Amino acid sequence: MHLAKGEAVTPRPWEEVGWTPPAPQLPGLEIILDGDMEEFAQNVMGQHYILSHGDHTAAFRELCQLLKIEFVF
Asked: What is the 3-state secondary structure (H, E, C) of 37-69?
């Protein structure tokens, strides 16, 4: 499991590729990650992530230990 912490902020305006302008403004969230972005990028395991409000690091670490899942932080 790849876990990263950060702060959620209102996203900058953007347009989805493939839409004829003006494209609809789809829901989004921008995350300002704590730590080194290069290190995060080296551990990306997919294009989608599950978000949770608050710091649940200890619970996720414990779950990974119980399920014998590698924990990357």
From this structure: HHHHHHCCCCCCCCCCCCCCHHHHHHHHHHHCC
